Amino acid sequence: MTEIPLEHVLFLSCILFSIGFVGVISRKNTLFMLMSLEVMLNAVGVAFIGAGSAWRQADGQVMFILILTLAAAEVAVGLALFIRMQRRYRSLDIDELNEMRG
Fold first, then answer.
1. At what angle do helices 6-26 and 30-54 cross, to 10 degrees?
2. In the chain, which residue ranges form alpha helices assigned H by DSSP?
3. What is the pLDDT of residues 36-47, one digit of tens each?
4. How far apart are CA 33 and CA 25, in angstroms?
5. What pLDDT is attached to residue 21?
6. Is 16 within 8 Å of 46 (Cβ atoms)?
7. 40-46 own/partner pairs: CB under 8 Å, 24+ apart
8. CA–CA separation, 51 and 53 (whole Å)
9. Please, what are the domains in the chain?
10. SS3 90
11. More confident residue, 2 or 6
12. Is residue 2 over pLDDT 70?
């Protein structure tokens, strides 16, 4: 079996990160923004795994586990905020957050 070159892995990671970034910038729905952030975190994880595999080190896998932990915490806090926002404003539109200023 041949290994996948690091350049291909990093190219895939850049494409995934770009898709996630465009999703965060262009969407108004907070749920889609959270999903785009998850795509961005997975792109970083793919880059860490690919680099760790190319250098034959386990550091990339350890960093990916930390990224997964961060993503789980983000989802927990984000969903709690979404439930609160849905109950108060009856919408998940990000422009509704302008009214939350104290």
1. 170
2. 6-26, 30-54, 59-89
3. 999 999 999 999
4. 8
5. 98
6. yes
7. 40/16, 41/67, 41/70, 41/71, 41/74, 42/16, 42/71, 43/13, 43/14, 43/15, 43/16, 43/17, 44/13, 44/17, 46/9, 46/12, 46/13, 46/16
8. 5
9. 6-95 (1.10.287.3510)
10. coil
11. 6
12. yes
* 44-97 residue pLDDT tens: 999 999 999 999 999 999 999 999 999 999 999 989 988 988 888 788 777 766
Q: Which of 48, 66, 35 is nearest to 9 (CA)?
A: 48
Instruction: Tell which residue, 26, 24, 63, has the closest CA to residue 40.
Output: 24
Looking up tokens 């690091």, which residue turns up?
Answer: 6
Amino acid at 85: M
Residues 23-32 pLDDT 10s: 999 988 888 9
Give the per-residue pLDDT at 66: 95
